[in-house]
Amino acid sequence: MKILAIICEFNPFHNGHAYLIEKAKKTADCDAVLCIMSGNFTQRGDMCIFDKYTRARHAVLSGADCVIQLPAPFAVAPAEIFAKGAIKILSSIPEVTAVAFGCESGSEQDFINSAKLLIEENEKLKRILNEKLSAGESYIKSYASAFEACGGADGLLNKPNNILALEYTKAIIRLNANIGILPFERVGAGYNDEELKENFSSASAIRGNLNHEMVKRNVPDFVYSDIKNSADTREFKSFLRHKLFLTDADGLKNIFGCSEGLENKLKNLENEPFESIIEKATSKRYSSSRIKRILCANALELYRHDCESYLNEDLYIRPLAVKRICADKLLSALAKSNYPVATGIDSDKLTQTAKECFEKDRKEFNLYNFLTHSNKKDYMIIV
Q: 10-19, 138-147, 227-236: which has the minimum mean pLDDT?
């Protein structure tokens, strides 16, 4: 069986995601599409507007054959860790032959060459990076400038999806995984585009305009029909502030990306309204997404040292949804993984380290139920 994988969040699933699945299936000539998807909280530190099972169902109804979970410690983490966790799990499944992803620009060879350059991170790149940072430029711009000065493809590091794509490619190379890459240029909204567009808008634009009539044109009908039940995030933001108040500065330093005094800055802002915390903590060096991710990881108790240990140990395959007509075949393919398949809350088959990671997923799911006043069960669904 030849499986094509897509690493995703689907918050929410929209026409651009459906386009990627359809285009990738045709290009890869695969037998099945497997999505590895974040749970209920995302890499940008947001709470998803639909729970993981609803989003997994949307994906299967739109052409995916199976959706498995990207464990929470990787899902709410910097791009490098997000990618490492996803590729680690996918590379354990022998029949996964390629990863498809949407990107703003760049060819397959651009990503391979650039990933190798970033892995090497030669002295010239480090020197230029430090020079740019010392001159007051943001980390993202400084790194992009150093990257291009060392022969990296122009513009490849200036876009968020390209950055993730490069991290996927780096993880594949580092693991020496027998997985190819299939980049597809995104359609519709561009970088930092928060405005709704005709048919193809970004997920962030859709989240910011849920009551706008144009949303209906940008998502499948079954997604649109669920929007009336989308989660209210106000309690989530209050919970993040509460957890920040309860955590001291040394505790914050256990979170990926919270160092160099940022922990003290966040503690000094703990009595501010949530949006004010984000605004005042954001700077050229620290993006708003990074600040939100730190606060979310802190609330979920997702610590750097735990995540690093999970990356070095055997994990698990956690199916969320599978298409009925191919369920037996897909689950048999997943069972060939080096890691056990865990289809419910039972984790008896897992190693101790994997159980600890699995428990983070369970707590994340329970927190989402609590914040959304839901009683959804944490079991795989057949679509």
A: 138-147
